[in-house]
Specification:
2 domains, beta-1,4-mannosylglycoprotein 4-beta-N-acetylglucosaminyltransferase activity, 296 residues, four-stranded mixed β-sheet, transferase, Spore Coat Polysaccharide Biosynthesis Protein SpsA, Chain A, glycosyltransferase, 13 strands
């Protein structure tokens, strides 16, 4: 580690920083387990906040609370909080982004309850934005690390069979101080390359795709009820096509044209989370050739 620290222009610490992994959780149980297994050896506390409604105001079960036994391997490190959401009514104009922001603010109190203190390393990212253990060990063992760093994650869609690009940057790592606030937006121009994986819409069951499509902040993209048809979803995820029938989100026509059409397949299982590879049979749906899903 001494060599790695110096290669980045940093120096080796006499002892590692404590690490707090803070996430707002919806229903991604499989990715949560892969994430926590990846990071478990370096994380001090797993801080997880879930709500009893979606960002769009739909009542939902507390998926983590009802499946907590699955995470017994990390039980001593888990700090779990419940956010009381608001149920939308017919004609309601509740802004899903406002509710999402409220949950992120609530995370600040939960982190303090978990015992975070100045100088600790805080990971701020969504469940499906998974930093690699290698990345976190580097940042916890080195002095001279910038106080805030974005993490460049390799972006995948539906599974690790469909790599999109390296455009995922919202995940951040902070050296905690009293002014640190939990967020999911641009905070610095500094970014650490090749720092992990972002697997969007990487679900085991078709019902989970439908849940996310109607639950998250961009649910307005479901413009037609047939978008939620299981057979349509199955066909699109095996082709690597867009669930919402939209153009790619880019800032130039050149980038939009480059990304139009299906995502090219990859048959590679190199440089993926270790727990995923070690349990390939269990997580076949996330690996090349495993695009077919059950309804659940």
């Amino acid at each position: 580690m001494d060599c790695l620290c110096h290669l980045h222009g940093w120096s080796l610490r006499s002892q590692p920083r404590r690490v707090f992994d803070g996430i707002i959780f919806s229903n991604e149980l499989d990715l949560l387990e892969i994430r926590w297994r990846e990071l478990n050896s370096s994380v001090t506390k797993f801080v997880i906040l879930e709500a009893n409604t979606t960002f769009t105001g739909i009542p939902k079960p507390l998926f983590f609370a009802s499946n907590r036994d699955r995470f017994a391997f990390a039980e001593a490190k888990i700090v779990h909080g419940v956010f009381p959401g608001r149920t939308a009514f017919h004609g309601s104009k509740e802004d899903p982004f406002a509710l999402e922001s409220e949950q992120r603010r609530s995370m600040n109190g939960l982190l303090r309850r978990a015992g975070i203190s100045n100088g600790d390393l805080l990971i701020m990212s969504d469940t499906d934005e998974i930093p690699s253990l290698h990345t976190i060990k580097l940042l916890q063992w080195c002095d001279g690390v910038p106080p805030v760093l974005h993490l460049e994650l390799k972006h995948y869609m539906y599974s690790f069979e469909f790599p999109v690009d390296y455009s995922s940057w919202r995940a951040t790592v902070h050296i905690y101080n009293p002014g640190t606030h939990y967020r999911h937006s641009r905070v610095t121009d500094l970014i650490l390359s090749d720092a992990g994986w972002h697997c969007s819409f990487c679900f085991r069951h078709l019902r989970e795709f439908v849940f996310k499509m109607t639950a998250y902040s961009h649910a307005d993209r479901v413009r037609h009820k047939e978008f939620l048809d299981y057979s349509r979803i199955q066909k699109l995820i095996c082709q690597g096509d867009d669930l919402f029938d939209m153009l790619p989100e880019e800032y130039s026509f050149r980038e939009i044209i480059k990304k139009m059409g299906s995502i090219p397949r990859s048959a590679s299982a190199v440089h993926l989370p270790a727990y995923l590879i070690d349990n390939a049979d269990r997580y076949k749906f996330l690996l090349p050739g495993g695009c077919f899903r059950t309804s659940g």
